[in-house]
Specification:
Largest sheet: none
Organism: Dinghuibacter silviterrae
Number of strands: 0
Number of domains: 1
Order of helices and strands: HHHHHH
Strand content: under 5%
Radius of gyration: 16 Å
Protein name: DUF1440 domain-containing protein
Keywords: Membrane, Transmembrane, Transmembrane helix
Oligomer: single chain
Distance between the termini: 17 Å
Shape: elongated
Length: 147
């Protein structure tokens, strides 16, 4: 269980949470979530194009794997995340939210979408639970010999 499997788990958890949120709040199917992800590369045409759902899933997983690899790299330089996985999960989930919402999405071709504060908070909690926690605890398990 290394970077790949932990990243895969984090990507699946985050994708499932985002899909559930879209379904419960907006009655949108999971496909809409992954079309939105694909719109980061393809812009508005992702909402009507063929193969955009699998493309969105693939992009989502690559992003989750990249954040997982970055965390593992951080753990080779700094022991605090391994010694305090709960705090690291909250911190890293917050960092992921900031990077995605203030850097990646604004620089992508994704159409602008207004988001109320309460939804931003829900998205932050999802990233803490779905990305931060499995990555922090998975890295702790992976690096346990070095603690």
């Amino acid at each position: 269980m290394g970077i790949f499997f932990i990243g895969l788990l984090a990507g699946i958890l985050d994708g499932a949470a985002a899909s559930l949120l879209a379904w419960t709040l907006a009655k949108r199917p999971p496909a809409a979530v992954f079309r939105f992800v694909a719109s980061g590369l393809y812009g508005p045409r992702a909402f009507n194009g063929r193969y955009m759902v699998p493309t969105g899933v693939a992009l989502h997983m690559v992003i989750a794997l990249a954040f997982t690899a970055a965390y593992f790299g951080l753990c080779t330089l700094w022991s605090w995340p391994l010694q305090h996985p709960a705090g690291a999960a909250v911190s890293y989930g917050t960092v992921v939210w900031v990077i995605m919402n203030l850097v990646v999405i604004p620089l992508s071709k994704t159409p602008p979408r207004p988001m109320p504060l309460w939804l931003k908070v829900i998205n932050l909690v999802i990233l803490i639970v779905a990305i931060g926690a499995p990555v922090a605890w998975g890295a702790r398990w992976y690096f346990k010999a070095y603690l």
